[in-house]
């Protein structure tokens, strides 16, 4: 459906939408809107027809947001909600108005199982109805305008992202780039000489003091889409953010929630890292650009992060060093101030190589994990939480 073709809603229709997102049911429309139930029912069916929605309150709520017939709600931090993938799948199917039988067929699950999961997802989102659950899921980016518009445009639910597309994506990470966050273009870079520099080096035309870290590396710039409380919001997209990743890595905070990742284990406190064999270097050192994880998100990452699914090791790291950056190397073009990237790929550049670092645009901070103990993650979690936390429990804030 084209947004321009969406008719403006009347005040009563908006009230009906508000009634549904507040967890009201169809039987209560009349009293809620101060009219007879018969008139309320008529208002509802007319509104469904107007917006091309199936006669289903959850679908109506989703379509109102997707077409912006009603202003969609503000987005919330997705890392505040931990839902198993099988429950997330249901939310998208709620939003296209499917019943339990259709959901079971589509997901290839038993119908009793779907009914059970549908109840659980309402409990977990503290929603009274599926329509209210869709509203909450919208805020956490689980049901998106893109998915709903795709369904409306293709006219069939096959286009909507369900298990096949959604599973394997892993948890939403604090360090991940979000939709709408834009990197500076290479044209913002130049070769320049600072007041204290004998030789030219890579700079921004409008260089600011915080563009370089303490060791002189120049960092990529990108805008941020943050909530009012300063948390990243919006749909996660490919790549990590060049400000949040180094901040998280430098302070060794949790990659998912930016909370503390230091475990205060008696006699052996340390930071919890999940590493792969690819990150192993000679002499047992692990070199990684993947920040640590807090105890609350450790299992979630271990079980669902794609990079860890073909094997990983849990380390309690007692000593590590910021060894360098992942970044792109540039060269000056002749005598001009213009520069060009040597290649599009990101390489590791050690801080120790100062000559090379002069021409690098850094985008991720890298740590060498030099002293650690290999641990059994599940045993550690059992010891930390005598009753294991439910996988759906809300994560604590940082
Ligand atoms: Zn965390």
Describe the structure.
With 398 residues, this protein is an alpha+beta fold. It folds into two domains: 1-167, no CATH class; 176-383, no CATH class. It contains 14 helices and twelve strands. It has helices at residues 11-21, 29-33, 37-51, 57-66, 85-95, 100-107, 111-124, 130-139, 145-154, 163-166, 244-251, 295-304, 354-357, 377-384; strands at 176-178, 189-192, 201-204, 218-219, 236-240, 262-263, 270-275, 286-288, 313-332, 339-341, 347-350, 360-375. Strands 4, 6, 7, 8, 9, 10, 11 and 12 form an eight-stranded mixed sheet that branches. A two-stranded antiparallel ribbon has the order 1-5. The protein has a two-stranded antiparallel ribbon with strand order 2-3. Helix 4 runs parallel beside helix 8 (130-139), helix 5 (85-95) crosses helix 8 and helix 6 crosses helix 7. The longest helix is centred in the first third of the chain and has 15 residues, at 37-51. The model is unreliable at 158-168 and 388-398 (pLDDT under 50). It binds zinc ion. Zinc ion is lined by residues 254, 256-257, 259, 294, 296-297.
